[in-house]
Amino acid sequence: AQSVTQLDSQVPVFEEAPVELRCNYSSSVSVYLFWYVQYPNQGLQLLLKYLSGSTLVESINGFEAEFNKSQTSFHLRKPSVHISDTAEYFCAVSESGGYNKLIFGAGTRLAVHP
Amino acid sequence: GAVVSQHPSWVICKSGTSVKIECRSLDFQATTMFWYRQFPKQSLMLMATSNEGSKATYEQGVEKDKFLINHASLTLSTLTVTSAHPEDSSFYICSALKTGLTYEQYFGPGTRLTVT
Predict the structure, then answer these.
(1) CA–CA separation, A56 and A64 (whole Å)
(2) How far B96 CA lies from chain A's nearest CA (Å)?
(3) What are the pLDDT digits (tens) for A72-111?
(4) Which backbone phi and psi does B74 adopt, to 5 degrees?
(5) Does B5 contact chain A (CB < 8 Å)?
(6) Which residues of B touch A107 (CB under 8 A)?
(7) A35 exposure class (CB count in 10 Å sphere: 0-12, 13-18, 19+)
(8) How far is A63 from A60, CA to CA, in rounded Å?
(9) How far is CA B36 from the centre of its chain?
(10) pLDDT, tens only, B56-70
């Protein structure tokens, strides 16, 4: 069975500092990996995804994540955060070739302080 | 873009009554929709997969007679919580699977259910 572990429930950081949100997964088959963001009182939005190809994927707002198969990780990074990045971030995995069930991690609350 | 709406966004009902939540894909057709439940400060837990024109597939531990799912059209899936109890209070989120060149789930904004 697949599972996702987000090691940090909360990450406080100052504005313009770098941040890394950690995500590890467990699966016996090939997977697709995702990061979703949930702003207060809003639905989940896809931030970025890894399906195949380059192991480094980027979003339009400066986040990036790297798929590391040997470490079964898909950590999310941003070199300089903004106040507006304050949100809940969820890592998710689905079995490749199907793209149906998404298994979510517990989420990481990113709090950016001025 | 791809937009998914949910209605209502917030509902309060009395214990023992039933409540229906609608999930609509506004600008695309979705053969498959998903229903999730999110507890406070916790992750989303998949409840069931809804397929247009067929019975929903429920995850282990989810009571299908309590959480009735109907996917009657390519743009609408409904979740009915029957004989609701306070422990059913939660945040219910749906997503719709958009297919084509890529497959991607688009999420609705969620429905907050409070059972008193």
Answers:
(1) 7
(2) 10
(3) 999 999 999 999 999 999 999 988 655 568 889 999 999 9
(4) -75, 0
(5) no
(6) 41-43
(7) buried
(8) 7
(9) 6
(10) 999 999 999 999 999
Radius of gyration for the alpha carbons in chain B, expressed in angstroms and rounded: 13
Average pLDDT over chain B, rounded to an integer: 92
**Interface of chain A toward chain B, CB-CB under 8 angstroms:** 36, 41-46, 49, 51, 90, 99-107
Token pair for B1: 């873009």
Residue A46's Cα: distance from chain center in Å?
9
User: CB–CB of B97 and A99 under 8 A?
Assistant: yes
Subunit contact B44:A45, Cβ cutoff 8 A: no
Q: Residue A22 is encoded by which pair of tokens?
A: 């950690």
**Whether B104 contacts chain A with CB within 8 A:** yes
Q: Do A100 and B32 touch (CB under 8 A)?
A: yes
